[in-house]
Amino acid sequence: DINECETRNFTCTLQQTCFNIPGEYKCLDPVRCEEPYIQINENRCMCPAENVGCRDQPFTILYRVMDMVSGRSVPSDIFQMQATTRYPGAYYIFQIKSGNEGREFYMR
């Protein structure tokens, strides 16, 4: 595989991110936060506590893009997320929001 993103042989715009995949590449659009969230950096959205529309919403949403190499033995742990007790009384919800239509992934 030639990594077009490293060789700068791609047609993504300045706002997009080049993401290498075997045999080609994809241009990923920047994260756009949906109301009532506001964008606080390139991959994080925050719902301000003073906004009444945020009352029953998660405080922050963090977007991550991961490449997974084929040929992995399964089942296999791909990554680990861990909740912290930084905010007393907070609770955490982890879920796969999209891309799991075939139910290939699960959380434990």
From TrEMBL:
PROSITE patterns noted in UniProt: EGF_CA
Show the stretches that span the lipid bilayer: none
Source superkingdom: Eukaryota
Q: Which Pfam families match?
A: Fibulin_C
What taxonomic ancestry is recorded? Eukaryota, Metazoa, Chordata, Craniata, Vertebrata
What's a single GO MF annotation on this record?
Answer: calcium ion binding
Q: Which organism is it from?
A: Pterocles gutturalis (yellow-throated sandgrouse)
> Does this entry carry the keyword Disulfide bond?
yes
Q: Specify the protein name.
A: Fibulin-5
Which keywords does this chain's UniProt record carry?
Disulfide bond, Repeat
Looking at the record, the residues that make up the EGF-like calcium-binding domain are 1-46
